[in-house]
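Here is a tokenized protein:
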Amino acid sequence: MRSRKGYTLIELVLVLLLLTFVAVAVFLLTDVGSAAYARIYANRDQAADLRIGLSYLDVRLKKIDGVGQVEIRPALFGGGQALVLTQEIECNVYETQLYVEAGMLRELFSRKGLEVNADMAAEIARADKMAVSFAGEQLLVLTLTTGSDTPVSASQWIHLRAVQEATP
């Protein structure tokens, strides 16, 4: 019998194939893991934007809450609904319209009756849709939704001290 010194070509090829298989498996696992992480982070980011928007709406509503000062109307821009807050400042009546347009929750503050355009609005937070409704006389339900592939929604129920019925 002869003693073997060295490797044969087939052994070398098998070892290289095994190393290639392990490298591809590690790459695929890393790719799948990073995609899952990115998806989770994106959903978390969307949820944070919705919480910011709902918190802002909550503060604005609690600041303005009074008889005849909170209404739901069709939005002037972007379609959908607008939450309209009315207040009187130095004998002038002002309206704050909160609505969603082009993927952003926007706030438009103007004197009542003045002509306004979409460029006058300030961007508050990312949101694709806003639904506003009254659940009873003094309970306002706000729902913000964002994302098209995997939509994320957040809702908040706000108890108002005084309200005005929604206008069609």
